[in-house]
Amino acid sequence: MSDEKPSLLEFPCEFPIKMMGRDSAEFQTTARRIVEQHAGPVSDEAIRTSPSRNGRFISITITIDAESQAQLDAIYIDLSAHDDVLVAL
């Protein structure tokens, strides 16, 4: 019996990872670094940002070529554990 959890996704696949934090260069660098630790280098074209209405927060969406559910789980665990990341979706 496999320990791997079943997934609704078929891997490999393109997968958008969205996170929100305070609008700062540090947050954007941290978000990219965490994702790249698990997914390898990410091109600038794979990153979309959107500021909040008041400009204090920013959402970052990084689309990766996901290889497995375990990879995605590891990314979300690391994002959620970081103080600069307020929400990871």
Secondary structural class: alpha+beta
CATH architecture annotation: 2-Layer Sandwich
Radius of gyration: 14 Å
Number of domains: 1
Distance between the termini: 30 Å
Task: Indicate the mean pLDDT.
Answer: 93
- The CATH homologous superfamily is called ACT domain
Share of helical residues:
25-40%
Number of helices, where a helix is a run of at least 4 consecutive DSSP H or I residues: 2
Family: Belongs to the UPF0250 family.
InterPro entries: UPF0250_YbeD-like (IPR007454), YbeD-like_sf (IPR027471)
Protein name: UPF0250 protein BA177_12630
Note the topology.
Blueprint: E1 13-22, H1 25-39, E2 47-51, E3 57-66, H2 69-81, E4 87-88
Antiparallel strand pairs: 1-3, 1-4, 2-3
Q: Describe it for me?
A:
One of its GO terms (cellular component) is cytosol. This is UPF0250 protein BA177_12630. Belongs to the UPF0250 family. The chain has one domain: ACT domain (Alpha-Beta Plaits, 2-Layer Sandwich), CATH 3.30.70. It is built from two helices and four strands; from the N terminus they run E-H-E-E-H-E. The protein has helices at about 25-40, 70-80; strands spanning about 15-20, 45-50, 55-65, 85-89. It has a four-stranded antiparallel sheet, covered by helices on one side. Strand 2 and strand 3 form a beta hairpin. The radius of gyration is 14 Å and the shape is globular. The termini are far apart.
